[in-house]
Amino acid sequence: QVRLVQSGGGSAQSGGSLRLSCAPDDRVTRYSMGWFRQALGKEREGVASIDSDGWTRYGDSVKGRFTISQDNAHTLYLQMNSLKPDDTATYYCAADLRRMSSLWGPGDWPNSWGLGTQVTVSS
Question: Alpha-carbon distance 101 to 52, whole Å?
Fold first, then answer.
């Protein structure tokens, strides 16, 4: 497992933007990484992921609004634009040596998780 340090998030108005960051403490291994979220009373869901070969996957509800990226130091980002109240949730960064695009549940999830960061979008 790898330790993941999340930053960013917070509050925004509907239509606004926020950015999340996630830094792995292992800067050598190329992990597949992703973002997941869980709203109150709802199940955890995949938001966006990027495999170690660069292949990306997005949830249907965020396509065209959110962008996942990764820099050369393996820090993961999630740029969230055109935010909606339905985007309100706790967002978790995840990492795994397996392809993250295949770990969106319900039976199989990533091995390593960040502590989560709250995103609140008001109308």
Answer: 10
